[in-house]
Amino acid sequence: MGADTHKLTASERTWLEVRTYMREHRSWLDTVAVESYPNIGRVAETPLLTRQEWIPPVPLRLEEIDLELVSTRLDEAGARLDGSSCLPTRDSGEPYTTYAEAVAEIAAPTVFENRPTYRLLGADLTTSPPILRFGLGTYFDSINVGEAAAHEFALAQRGHAVAASVREAISDPCDPAQRPINLAISTLTIRREPETGAKSFLLHWRDPRKVGHAGGMYQVVPVGIFQPSGYANWNIGNDFSLWHNMVRELAEELRGDTEDHGSENAPIDYAAWPFASRLDQARREGTLAVYCLGLGVDPLTYATDLLTAVVIDAPVFDSLFGAAVTNNAEGRLLELQPFSAERVQEILDHHPVQAAGNAVLRLATAAVFD
User: What is the pLDDT of residues 110-148, one digit of tens each?
Assistant: First the structure.
């Protein structure tokens, strides 16, 4: 995807080279970028940044978390980056005005839309009840700040001077007042044998041709931005549920189901959707449980992830995902891996795993799921 490289300006080619460098050196850049924040906590000795109130002392059941929504659309803070080193120049001599604009015209992945999102305004997962507060935003809000900041960091690592720095303006990436935060829900999917308790899990390789973030890296699955299912206003309230967001991602990434749920014509009826209804039944029966392990921020791109795990008894898993897709809209699923501290460590040692995936795997191996 993206523009014909033969028609790019020298500035655009340089920009694209830096994007490629970011993808190829992502793990290393994360470990260097985290050193910029010595006074901010980290999740389970990974590069993922966090706050004390973002990590519950024990895994939370997802249903324990209260959600609040401020139903007003917030401004696109930091969208324009006039004079920034992370923006290339067109053949006309005019610079791009936002980072998302440059991605769309030069290196767009398969799907790259400025869809509505729920924007994180505050979080405390240690209080009673735990709470997450949201406003409304758009997908490009975080691209224009986080990906721009990552580009600047990569430029600096390659010895270039950085002008009009986005990164310098953000002293604490975990502070929602300093930047727009779109929340991704990163879910570790675990299959459990009810007779023996033996567990296995799925891992996902993110194809850089298909995704706008963390291409070429491994990640838990499914992962999806917390957002309404479509542009229609009725979706804002109807889809404001962490669980329903996860259900849609489980359907899309593990089964290859369509992302088009018809919600531009009418709200999704989750109770009438057989797949969602079967998952809800399993939760009621105790053969499926969903946990929240914490919240963290990538030190390079500022991508922010709610770290979750879904534990599914084998009969339910096999009936719903026994014919799981190998390739999906965002990359490739690996076969089930034994869920043990030894196997997880082996994967982390030999594969470039996204910071959020690294964190959720470490937290989950140390957790006791009731």
Answer: 889 999 999 999 999 999 999 999 999 999 999 999 999
Cα–Cα distances (Å) from 203 to 105, 188, 220, 256, in that order, read: 31, 8, 5, 15
Would the CA dihedral through 176, 69, 114, 356 be positive or negative?
A: positive
Give residue 76's pLDDT band: very low, low, confident or very high (50, 70, 90): low
Confidence of residue 7 (pLDDT cuts 50, 70, 90): confident
Is residue 171 pLDDT above 60, yes or no?
Answer: yes
Q: Which domains does the chain have, with CATH numbers?
A: 5-366 (3.90.79.10)
pTM: predicted TM-score of the whole model, two decimal places: 0.92
Q: Determine if the peptide bond prior to 95 is cis (ω within 30°).
A: no
Task: Identify the pLDDT of residue 82.
Answer: 61
pLDDT over 80 at 21, yes or no:
yes
pLDDT score recorded for residue 353? 87
* Alpha-carbon span 209 to 112, nearest angstrom: 11
Spell out the residues 6+ positions from residue 275 whose beta carbon is closer than 8 angstroms to its own.
247, 251, 255, 257, 320
